[in-house]
Amino acid sequence: MHPLQTHKSEDAVHLSAEPAIASPRPPSSRQVGLLLAGVAVGGAALAWVGINDRAKGMQEVESWTERQAVPTVRVVQAVRGPMDEDLTLPGSLSAFYTGTLYARASGYVTAWHRDIGARVRKDEVLVEISAPDLDQQLAEARATLVQLQAAVDQAQANADLSAATNKRTARLVTQGWSSEERGDTDRFTAASRMAALSVAKANIVAQQANVGRLEELARFKEVRAPFDGVVTARNVDIGDLLTAGGTSGRPLYRISDLHRVRAYVNVPQAFLAVMKPGLKASLRVPGQGAPFDAEVTSTANAVAEDTRKGLVELQADNSEGKLWPGAFVEVRFHLPSDPGTLRVPATTLVFDRNGTQVAQLGDDHRVALKPVTLGRNLGNEVEVRAGVTIAERLIDNPQEFLASGDVVRVAGEEATPRTASAN
């Protein structure tokens, strides 16, 4: 047999041994219905999810919009004032008395006796001045006074002689032994010499005054301390040429009475009403440990227009000499305070044509603008005399457009109020 035929017959045997493949059957109507129903349910589910997400998103947008339409504010409350209140202000120290000494006699300095820091007694000699010109003027004035005194004596003698002559002539005229012309001449001569005597006496009085003036100036050749105190400045040395009456330059000496010191403070207008004499205060000087007791003695009774402050004077004991004039000092006033007076931050105030108001927030988150009566302005805080209670909530930094009845949201609170339109 041919080999090719053998292979063909084997292939035929193998083919006849395999089972026959069945042809596909078309799906039944029940299967098709189930498939369509599943597709419809899936589409409905997807549509429901989409609609729900869309509604939720719209609700969130509406809620966000509503929140944005309601202003967010911060609230504060009024607080009571302290039982005791301190007011600290900068000030400066001054000596109780200060004497500034200038030259009253022209000349050269021959000696000075006290340096800065020295304690001096009243009328103690500090500077000696050599004034030869003044000495010469005084000697000349005294000599002139002697001349004028002699002139007075001469005028007195002439007046006495004329008076006696006039008396004799008047008697002779009466008896007819002398003419009336002679009598008139002697009478007028006596009157003239009496007038000359008065002029001579007036001249001597004037010259005595001139001598006294020069003697007083001569006393100024010694510059003396005007009171007990401490030398706080010395600007003179031996050989210096001094000019009498000069006050434009540096003084020769400055003497300060430091047994007490004065402190001057510029106090804001809001506190001037309590600055009464006797008000207690304490002074603290940089570099000094413990404060010093002081009290108000007087005020200027005037307010500076540029600063709206008034000058207040205090005095403090300085028997130990620890306080120096010219030093910077912190003055702490111990002010009486009314604990019933409430204080609010200055940022809660609203100023408009209706006056001064605050924005009070009710429990329903509605704003109510209320007028208030203010007391002192304390800087960051102000005193409120009337119009606010300690339990009320006040809006801090209220917006200008807020009006009574507006609804607001408080920062930090979870509950969000609904607007008036939503209600």
UniProtKB/TrEMBL annotation:
Stretches assigned to the CzcB-like barrel-sandwich hybrid domain: 101-244
Transmembrane intervals: 32-51
Keyword match Transmembrane: yes
Coiled-coil features, chain-numbered ranges: 131-158
Keywords (A to Z) from UniProt: Coiled coil, Membrane, Transmembrane, Transmembrane helix
Keyword Cell membrane: no
Family statement: Belongs to the membrane fusion protein (MFP) (TC 8.A.1) family.
PANTHER family, per database record: MULTIDRUG RESISTANCE PROTEIN MDTA (PTHR30469), RAGD PROTEIN (PTHR30469:SF37)
Protein name: Efflux RND transporter periplasmic adaptor subunit
